[in-house]
Amino acid sequence: MLKQSKPLIATVVATMALSFGIGTTGVSASKLNDLQNQQQQIEQKKNELNRGIQEKASNIKANSEKMDKLLAQIKDLHEKIDTKQNEIAKIEQEIQTTKAEIEALRASIKELEQKIADRDALLRDRVRAMQVTGGSTSYVDVILGANSFSEFIDRVSAVNTLREADRQIIAEQKADKATLEDQKNQVESKLASQEENKKKLEAAKAELDRQKKDLDGLVDQLEAEQQRLEKEQASLESEYSEAHEMSDELKQQIVAEQERIAEIARKAEEERKRKEAEARKQAAEAAASKQAESNRKAATSSKPTQSASSGSSVAHTSAPAPAVSGGTWTRPAAGRITSTFGPRNLSWASSNHRGVDIANATGTPIVAAGNGIVSKTGSHPTLGNYIMITHSVDGKTMTTVYGHLSAISTSKGAQVSKGQFIGRMGSTGRSSGPHLHFEVHIGNYGNAVNPMRYVPL
Q1: CA 147 to CA 327: how far, in whole Å?
Q2: Which residues pair with 376 in a beta bridge?
Q3: Is the pTM of this model over 0.70?
């Protein structure tokens, strides 16, 4: 876009050079109009670029907000991943503890297994002993085989002792085997449960890692988009800067042309005053030789232009034209002042009001506030139909602007007098109702001052 704008700017520069190289005398309102049109084109270009810059800035801000949200999600995922990692570390520690318990249990199991083995050996010895004595010898045979009562008592006692020992061995054997089996089941179940929990935690962590990876990918895309938008914004800003410099150059040329027109207006004003003074002198000389009635008629005919102008300004509307006041300036329209110069609080209009608004019915006559030359007429999206007049006041240049007109009744380069009809009030452009937007500028257009300081409003 920046490369494409350079040929356009070069063309504008060449056009300006030709404009200023052709003719430097006479009122060149068309030249000023061409320069202002060129400036308006560049201003429109600047507005487009500025909208593009603002749009890019808005997109960058939106991307930043998205990125902040994603980074917040990533931060949350980091916390969740750390939590899962800590849980995994904890369960791994529990697994290690359980494995240590299993190792300790194995030692206990070996002791139990040794006790069981010893008991099995004892029971086998008993069986072998019984087999050596006959294989089928019972405790009853042992008791009945006693040779005396005393031996009988001893044998009964011995048999009881053996039987009790056998029962105890068998009971202990069963209890130890049950304990061993229960301990094995408990530890194996605990270990299996811990291993299962570890798998679930690892799966949850893997899912969090996947989500984080997806978010990282989105952040990468947003960062790439952010870089692209910032690069495009920088390009637009560079082009805007170039267009701004071109606009400043055009403004200088416009100011020079306005000053040239102002000089012509100043000379025209001097000529007008000279003629008025000469007419007054001639009237005074004639008054000495004429009757009082002739003097009155001569005085009445000294302002034919204003009378004709005022009559024509009210011919097509019921609203009156303002009375022409004495002095340098006169009120440009009749009506009620609805907005003054300076800051104001309106959502639909400029907060810095550069003029005064005079409200009245559509079609109300608008007159020139002072003697001057019409330097520009046209239409603007905000100001609507407008007229710009350049004045020479005591050797100084001033500019008046009349906006939101429904009709323009003058043209560029026209010489107008104070109070002369130039158009009609309307509501064109950006307006909330029929009114005249009236501005006063010291020097050329662009130095707005409060109109109430100069014009009797």
Answers
A1: 169
A2: 388
A3: no
What is the 3 state secondary structure string of 87-140? HHHHHHHHHHHHHHHHHHHHHHHHHHHHHHHHHHHHHHHHHHHHHHCCCCCCHH
What DSSP state is assigned to residue 315?
A: T
Percent helix, strand and coil across the chain, each to the nearest 5: 65, 15, 20
* Residue 141 near residue 159, CB atoms below 8 Å: no
Task: Report yes or no: 412 and 29 within 8 Å, Cβ to Cβ.
Answer: yes
First to last CA, the chain: 48
Closest CA to 309 of 242, 365, 371, 226: 365
Integer Cα distance of 86 and 81 in angstroms:
8
Mind listing the pLDDT tens digit for each residue in 23-77?
Answer: 443 445 666 677 777 777 877 877 888 888 888 888 888 877 887 887 888 878 7
Selection from 277, 97, 305 nearest residue 194 by Cα: 97
CA distance 187 to 198: 16
